[in-house]
Specification:
CATH architecture: Up-down Bundle
Distance between the termini: 36 Å
Order of helices and strands: HHHHHH
Structural class: mainly alpha
Number of helices: 6
CATH topology: Four Helix Bundle (Hemerythrin (Met), subunit A)
Strand content: under 5%
Number of strands: 0
Number of domains: 1
Largest sheet: none
Length: about 140
């Protein structure tokens, strides 16, 4: 299973989360945030893997921030500010628990981060397919 497959599977689980239940139930909310953290981790690693397929060597040893920057420069990400915010909030969420911040993060997950994950999944799926299954040469190609 590839990094993109892992990201896609984790995202599918996150899509199954219930926003209303996350507001009402603290342990459920923490589960949603935990799944978000895992999905973010898998997302930037999938981005890195596909960037490397495209020869973006700067992504080879990059941190999440550097990989996101390279993804934006390569046109794989169009919403750089959302991803930067996502990374910052992910970093904070693993060190501090504050109920108001957790609810705010949960709202962002459903309203902004899930759509950003979806766009990345779709982009990476197309980009990976283009590299792994290049179009055959025309039969009259002499090149």
């Amino acid at each position: 299973m590839t990094k993109l497959d892992n990201f896609t599977n984790s995202l599918r689980v996150l899509h199954g989360a219930d926003r209303d239940l996350a507001h009402r139930d603290e342990i459920y909310r923490m589960g949603v945030i935990g799944q978000f953290n895992l999905t973010f981790e898998l997302a930037w690693k999938a981005l890195k893997a596909v960037l490397l397929l495209y020869g973006v060597d700067a992504a080879k040893t990059g941190s999440p921030r550097e990989v996101l920057k390279e993804g934006y420069a390569a046109g794989f990400l169009t919403d750089h500010d959302t991803w930067l915010d996502m990374m910052i909030r992910r970093n904070k969420s693993v060190h501090i628990y504050d109920v108001d911040l957790a609810i705010e993060l949960t709202d962002l997950i459903f309203s902004s981060y899930l759509p950003a994950f979806d766009r990345l999944r779709d982009t990476l799926t197309v980009k990976r397919a283009a590299v792994e299954s290049p179009q055959p040469l025309p039969t009259n190609f002499t090149g």
